[in-house]
Model the fold of this input.
Amino acid sequence: MEEKKKEETTIEETKDDQAYDDYTDFGVEEIRELLGKGQYTRLRQIITELNDADIADYLEEMEEEEVIKIFRILPKDKAADVFSYLEIDQQQSVITSLSDKDAGRIIDNMMSDDAKELMEEMPANVVKRLIANTSADTRKAINHLMRYPEDSAGSVMTVEYMDLKEHQTVAEAIERIRKVGVDSETINICYVLDNKRTLVGTVALRYLLLSDPEAVIGDIMHRSVVSIHTLMDQEEVARQFKKYEFTAMPVVDNEDRLVGIITVDDVVDILEEETTEDIEKMAAVMPSDKPYLKMTVFDAYKKRIPWLLLLMISATFTGSIITSFEHELSRYVVLTAFIPMLMDTGGNAGGQASAIIIRGISLDEIAFGDWGRVVWKEIRTALLCGLTLSVCNFARLMIFDDVSVRVALVVCMTLLMAVIVAKIVGSTLPMIAKKIGLDPAVMASPFITTIVDAISLLIYFRVAELVLNI
Done:
């Protein structure tokens, strides 16, 4: 009887094994099923074979208790890799739920830049506890990265890189890579240092593998090295990666000593962060590092209300202009009907120009020295756009609206001039902002629209005075 039960159990386990042999069909429900059955060894075996990012996606759908169990099951290096893919709030939840020993083990196995980013987001008391349970090397690396200004190359680099010496042979270099390469961010490119740790060259792993084992590194290395300074802004770092199309770049200090590297995955994060920040500024929203669904209503309120207040106050100038021309409007009430159209068209034209110029500045395609060329191009573009809009609008007024030719001329002449002014304002303000050290994205559509609205109204009423003799 007992032998029969053992046989049935073995058959059942075999079925389970077969069910999870195809990892492509393995997901949250399968993880929960194995957790429920207590088959931790089998779960560890399967989940270790999965992609780190996929595991992180599964964990985001699971309960906190289940997530903690998974991290206790995973090998320490795998746990650290998966942990780095989690959202920051889930990282905080996991790290504070684990024992001090387990938490310290995960941080020790994380890349230094990821560990530093985590520490910056954690409460001070938690950071103190975590740091106390990490190795001396980890503490040194994190403290080293925290010295650099926010958004600088030094703040986003990692200190895990593969360095070699000029006098080493290829065989010695490969042996060193075998010993310590597992802890490096990448080994595709090795950095050659002299006795003062000055960066003197680079050598690709493929060249090492194809070279004579007795060849000296100093003889086969590439001496023309493109590097990044520790204080370089992260936006400029992204531009350097785009320019040279590297997957990793070395970071050096004032004395050209190698202090870290930045890899292309860090640049992807930089681009996402900078683009998000620019979009928020262009929409008159204070930048936030929280995902939308993670923000509370009060968080959203705090990010939006400052700009709304500023724009509301600045828009009072528009009301003042209308009030000052009440007499003229009372004689030609029909002029009031076209105010919204003129203001909206001018604002849209300015917004178009500002968006294109801001994008050009961010891509290093436009500098302040190009001011004359930019304005001349925008004036010509505005003339074409304004004339097209004016002709179409004149035809519409004559066919569908019961207005005089003179009123139609006032509206269409104002439309042409408003578009020209809007294009000039929209193209120049972002360049001026960049010149004086402000973020060009601040001079985006909402701000420019307010300025253009006021100018468009002044033009409108002045043209009306001249054409209609009011």
